[in-house]
Amino acid sequence: MQKPNGKLFIEERLEKIMELVREKGKVTVEDAMDLCAVSADTIRRDFNRLSRQDIVLRTHGGIMVKDSSIYDSSTAERIVKHVEVKRIIAERAAGFVNEWDTIAVDAGTTTVQIIPHLQQFEHLTVVAYSLDVAEAAVRNDKITTMMAGGIVRNKTESVVGPDAVAMIKNLHADVLFLGTNAIDLSKGLMTPNRMEAEIKETLVSIADRVVLLADSTKIGKRALFPFARLEDIDLLITDKQAEKTQGDFLRHLKKINKEVILV
């Protein structure tokens, strides 16, 4: 959505700027002015906002990629990364499903892999907002699939927007299998897209139990939009590499009484 005068809202500007940073590695004030059709002062304030969130490096006259930042990649880009680890995480997560459950399955290349491991159930309902998840679920005639309706994002093939949020708010899930683009000790769970953050936040609110599926490369990273606190999750399933590289993070989760499973 844009303002009536055609200018972008702040969140939309920040998303567009971050997309350009991902493409080019570095963005100048002039680049962003051309992209967003706003003044240099407005862009400088936007750059400062992004820098304060610690997802870009501020440079003289611009911003540049920070190694710990996560950008809005497509499903096609993400599906080829850490394939075997994601499969193992999803297989372990499926063990937390019970007969007659209503499970919400987040969009993502890890979460979608839960669906093939649900063949043994006779009575199961899956709540989805991802076309990939819904397509996988409807192949099993024993699964009742509920699909959120709204705007389909071409990049991620997920359904977002106020209609999708409103529908999900009226539902209940026994378990949510949640994905994330980034996990930060202080900021929590984060994603690069505002509308997907709204959907994820809503899913967390309707679930009795939240199971986070994330490979260790997501830990210690930041993205633009936080959508859940670490306190909101009940269980993290990640790979054993996290024990070597993210020990402080895992100890913090255990300190706040969150279960961690390493696969």
What do you see in this structure?
The N terminus is likely disordered. The chain has two domains: 56 residues, Arc Repressor Mutant, subunit A, CATH 1.10.10; 188 residues, Rossmann fold (3-Layer(aba) Sandwich), CATH 3.40.50.1360. It has 263 residues and is an alpha/beta fold. The radius of gyration is 19 Å and the shape is globular.
Overall mean pLDDT stands at 88
CATH class (first level) name of the largest domain = Alpha Beta
Q: Label the CATH architecture of the largest domain.
A: 3-Layer(aba) Sandwich
Helix fraction, binned, reads: 25-40%
**Based on helices, strands and strand pairing, what is the structural class?**
alpha/beta
Largest sheet: 7 strands, parallel
Sheet with the most strands: spatial strand order: 6-5-4-9-12-14-15
Uncertain spans, ≥5 residues at pLDDT below 50? 1-6, 73-81
**What's the β-strand tally?**
15
H/E element order: HEHHEEHHEEHEEEHEEEHEEEHHE
Rg for CA atoms: 19 Å
Q: Which of globular, elongated, flat, extended, rod-shaped describes the shape? A: globular
**Beta-strand share of residues:** 15-25%
Number of helices: 10
Number of domains: 2
At CATH level 3, the topology of the largest domain is Rossmann fold
Gap between N and C termini? 42 Å
What are the key terms here?
single chain; 263 residues; alpha/beta; Arc Repressor Mutant, subunit A; Rossmann fold; 2 domains; seven-stranded parallel sheet; three-stranded antiparallel sheet; 10 helices; globular; disordered N terminus
